[in-house]
């Protein structure tokens, strides 16, 4: 599975917010990672809709985690951000290809996906959070 840039930004944003005791801004996240404010805003919107982030507009507003970082698994974030996590399209559908009647690859890849998803369901944002000091020294 190759994650989209959107999922990468979502995971980074959640990791950063997990180091904070106060709200952050979309601009802070964008500046920290050297990415577009517009991209971060779109990701934050998706994270808020999925219930991972609270977003408050206006003066004194900002973004913060909506859940404890230990309650947010990497697997569920990936699932909520990605439209397709299959290694090959045939794994996620019953579409036939020229070799479907004798192909064993689909089963192998389906099992690899199952193992990967099972593992990612055990890893939380809390497990991958660097110290706030490490974030301050990335540039």
From TrEMBL:
Keyword vocabulary terms for this entry: DNA-binding
InterPro entries: TR_Rrf2-type_CS, Tscrpt_reg_Rrf2, WH-like_DNA-bd_sf, WH_DNA-bd_sf
Gene3D superfamilies: Winged helix-like DNA-binding domain superfamily/Winged helix DNA-binding domain (1.10.10.10)
GO terms, molecular function: DNA binding; DNA-binding transcription factor activity
Entry GO terms, CC: cytosol
Coiled coil start-end: none
Keyword DNA-binding tagged: yes
Pfam families: Rrf2
Top-level lineage group: Bacteria
Protein name: HTH-type transcriptional repressor NsrR
